[in-house]
Amino acid sequence: LYVDHPLGQGQSVPLSRDQAHYLFGVMRLAAGGMVSLFNGRDGEWLAEVAEAGKRGGALDCIERSAPLRLPPDLWLLFAPIKKARTDFIVEKAAEMGAARIVPVQTDYTNADRIRQDRLQAHAIEAAEQCGGTFVPVVAELIRLDRLLDGWPAGRHLMFCDESRAGQNLELEAMPAGQPWAILIGPEGGFSPSERARLESLPFAHTVSLGPRILRADTAAVAALTLWQQALGD
Ligand code: SAM
């Protein structure tokens, strides 16, 4: 169970109404029952139900059952598309071990705002379901050109471009342990000026995901898989 609360020896963790409903109503736990907790920072903790109520309750941390496992330093940058597909991208990126998920506004992106809190909740649920101890941060929507203007030194960019069939970056030949970002465009792809800029950046590597034009959500999963296979942990 994810809790937004510090975890540590002897720490008492208050439960919200929803968490109490899930643990005591759905999972049928009672006082004395044991739960695994994580908060994305302190590893995984075994906790005992100290108080079980309809509208809340409390858990006592007993012992740490796993250390914090940090994912590789990989960001997923994607242009938000329709709501359900955007949710899918965030969920899969969290499952596939992206450390940071960054919605970017490109020339052909239709969305001009996102529900960051809702997307963050999807990332938390995905981390819960795959037994992670880390939760990726879902960043604010940012314009692609602004993001590129302030690009952090040393971070590689895997620019996924459907017009580059046959061009394949040998990811395996890249040094391991370096920071990376994957960039996936919107349904309409990148504009000519964006493509020209991306191709001129010294830290960007243009990558084809094969001869078929994939939907943005499929492309995100395919790119994450390739990267994790070659450079992930
Ligand atoms: N503009 C394109 C069109 O309408 O022909 C389609 C863009 S595609 C649906 C959305 C994004 O997925 C692209 O911007 C790219 O980042 C990624 N993508 C899809 N297929 C790809 C491929 N075969 N290789 C590399 N990237 C791909």
Percent of residues in beta strands = 15-25%
Mean pLDDT: 94
Cα-to-Cα separation, first versus last residue: 24 Å
Q: Which segments are poorly predicted (pLDDT under 50) over 5 or more consecutive residues?
A: none
CATH class of the largest domain: Alpha Beta
Portion of residues in helices?
25-40%
- Spatial extent as radius of gyration: 20 Å
N-to-C series of helices and strands: EHEEEEHEHEEHEEHEH
Shape: elongated
Any guess at the CATH architecture of the largest domain? 3-Layer(aba) Sandwich
Structure description:
The chain contains six helices and eleven strands. The radius of gyration is 20 Å and the shape is elongated. The chain starts with 11 loop residues before the first strand and ends with a helix. Helix 2 packs across helix 3. It is an alpha/beta fold. The chain has two domains: 12-66, Hypothetical PUA domain-like, domain 1 (Ribosomal Protein L25, Chain P); 74-231, 3-Layer(aba) Sandwich (Alpha/beta knot). The mean pLDDT is 94. The strands form two sheets. Strands 5, 6, 7, 8, 9, 10 and 11 form a seven-stranded parallel beta sheet that branches. Strands 1-4-3-2 form a four-stranded antiparallel beta sheet.
